[in-house]
Structures are given as structure tokens and as C-alpha cells.
Amino acid sequence: IDYFPSHIEIEKKLLSQKKVPVKAVTNLEYARQYYPSDTIQIIPNEVTLYGYQEIIDSIQCIYTLPIVAEQLKDTLSVDAELALPNHCKSDPKTVKVVAPVEFYTEGKQMVPITVVGVPENLQVRTFPSEVEVTYMAGFSHFKTIIPADFTITLQYNELISSNNDTHPLTLEQYPSHIVKPKLKTEKVQWIIEFVK
Q1: What is the pLDDT of residues 74-127, one digit of tens each?
Q2: Of 105, 113, 104, 106, nearest in space to 185 by CA
Q3: What is the mean pLDDT of residues 161-187?
Q4: Contacts of 86 (CB under 8 A, 6+ apart)
Q5: pTM, full prediction
Q6: How far apart, in whole angstroms, are the C-alpha atoms of residue 73 and residue 4?
Q7: d(CA 72, CA 99)
Q8: Nearest to 81 by CA among 126, 25, 137
Q9: In sequence order, which ranges of 59-98 are alpha helices (DSSP H)?
Q10: How many CB atoms lie within 10 A of CB 126?
Q11: How far apart are CA 170 and CA 116, in angstroms?
Q12: How many Cα atoms are found within 13 Å in the side-chain-facing hemisphere of 131?
């Protein structure tokens, strides 16, 4: 019995391995007054890739297949498949993606106004001297929020270059775990006094 071809050449390539971080691809929509309460967690946050070296050397991270959810009212936890390049495998094959969700309610704080850059021999008074800030916060953080978490500022140089006795306020700083922060008063009156 004859065979054609009588010889078959087989090219052998050793597989390489590499640990890479995983990033989640998400399209999440939340129900009214529900928001993410923390960053999305990926467990494990890295996987080991196996494949030809020329392929995996160019890979810096691996993405999940898209995760889509609507009207979320509770923490989402799914086993997500990975978008692997051709001729590559991973260990593990899937990762758990956890998107914490929490009900938010309105909070209020009275925050003092800070004037920045005032010369030592001067004092700037604002009317009012403090402003109410409203925001939405989750129950887990609601009771921990205090006025010192917020910074409302006026710039002295902007005041003296202005021809107006009122000036807009800037909410410079607020907690990262709140949403929709808003100043109830957006402009204040001001006067400059000499300090004896």
C-alpha cells in the first residue's frame, strides 16, 4: 500500500504562559435612586494565559465579554467569560464580576466657605459664611459624611479683579462615594476688611 504524501512535516511550537490582569466590560443601568456603592470587583483579578509566545507577548490585559444589565436594584454577581485571542487558553476560564449596588437617599450638610490666597493683613467676609450642600449617598456611608468632607472655595485674586460684589462658589472637594452634589446657594456677597 502506498500513501501520498509519504512524509508529513509537523512543526512543533512550545506554548508560553503569562499572567495578565482582567478588566470588565460592562453596560449597567440602575433603577431610580440606586447607584454603584463601590468599584467593580473581579475575582480573580488576573489569569494565566497559555499560547504562542509571539501572541501572548503583545497582550497587556484580557477583557471579559460584555456584561449587560438593566434596572439594577441589588448587587450583581456573574461568572464572566473572557475574550481570548485565537489559539490562547486561560486558567481559570472564567472570572466572577461583582458590581455592588445600593439604595441612595438625599443628605445635607452646612459647609463653611474658604477664601484662598488672602494677604495676611486682610480678611474676606462672605454673606452667607456657609452654604448648604445637598447630595445623594448610600446607606452604608450616609452616617459617616461630615461637613469637613466638603470644600467650598473662593479665590481672592478673582474677587479683587471682579467688578461685582457677588461671586460664584466652587465645590472643590466632596466624598467620592456620593453623587449629585449641589450647592443650594451658588453665589455669595463679599467684603474685604483690614486686620489690625
Answers
A1: 999 999 999 999 989 999 999 999 999 999 999 999 999 999 999 989 999 999
A2: 113
A3: 91
A4: 55
A5: 0.72
A6: 66
A7: 10
A8: 25
A9: none
A10: 21
A11: 12
A12: 24
**How many Cβ atoms from other residues are within 10 Å of residue 152's Cβ?**
22
Whether 183 and 171 have beta carbons less than 8 Å apart is answered as yes
The grid coordinates listed for 154 are 473662593
Q: Which long-range contacts (CB under 8 A, 24 or more apart) does 35-40 make?
A: 35/101, 35/102, 35/104, 35/136, 35/138, 35/179, 36/99, 36/100, 36/101, 36/102, 37/100, 37/101, 37/102, 37/138, 37/140, 37/141, 37/177, 38/100, 38/177, 40/97, 40/98, 40/99, 40/100
Half-sphere exposure of 70 (CA within 13 A, CB side): 0
Instruction: Round to whole Å and give the CA distance between 98 and 78.
Output: 7
The Cα–Cα gap between 136 and 153 comes to: 21
Counting Cβ atoms within 10 Å, is residue 179 exposed (0-12), middle (13-18) or buried (19+)? middle
Q: Three cell numbers at 195?
A: 486686620
